[in-house]
Every structure is written in structure tokens, then in C-alpha cells.
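# step 3/5: fold
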Amino acid sequence: MVRCGDDLLVRSYRGADGGWYRHARQYPHGRIKVRGTEHDVSFAEAAAISTDVVDRAYRDKYGAGGYVDAMIRDGAASTTLTLTPES
């Protein structure tokens, strides 16, 4: 997960074939764990955010290397979802 402004975003490392991604697209409600605390969220397509901005956020958070390279390739970039907290 990365933050871009007020948005919390996530991508599938395996692109559209990723199991969690397929599940999130079919059932857009889930639970994430951040620093030991679980949060209910909804998943939605991230349409209004520049791919370059999200790529930069991944590089800033995770540095360079294989993981980041996979997260910024076209297959993963096309799976960018916004996480919205549910009350």
C-alpha cells in the first residue's frame, strides 16, 4: 500500500492474475492490517490518479529493486485500487 495525497492505494504484484486482486474486484469489501490494527475497507478502481504519481510513491516507500520494478510495470499499474475506510 502507498499513500498519494489523501488516497491510500494498492496494486497487485501479479497483475490481474493475483488472487487477492480478483477477489477484491468481485467482492469489493475487505480487511487490511496496518501496524497490528485491522481495518475494514472497500476497494475501488483508482481512476483519477496519475500512474506516474503512484509509481513514484512505490519507489519512495520501497526503494529500488525487484519488488518495486514489478509494482510499477504495466500489468501491476493497471490493477491500482483505492482503499476507502468503512465505518
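# step 4/5: annotate
The mean pLDDT is 92.
# step 5/5: archive (pending)
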